[in-house]
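All the exercises in this workshop are built on plain-text protein records. Instead of coordinates, the fold is spelled out as a row of discrete tokens. Once this layout is familiar, the rest of the handout is easier to follow. The record below serves as our worked example for the rest of this section.
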Amino acid sequence: MPVPGPLELGLILLIVAMLFGVGKLPEVFGAVGKGIREFKREASLDDLGESKSSDDANSTNTKSTTDTVDTADTAQQS
């Protein structure tokens, strides 16, 4: 598979800038980078044969606790 050269990369970046707007580019590329990091982390866990079920349980508990606190704060402000 051929590697895209500088002209092709510039054209792709121009099209992305036109689609999302220049102000959104850091947010878009940040989300792409986060997705790539998460994919690599999951792939390395699969390679090592480790189970991430305990990680999922911890993140779910933390998230729901945070959501509950945010909801309570919002209710008090109203």
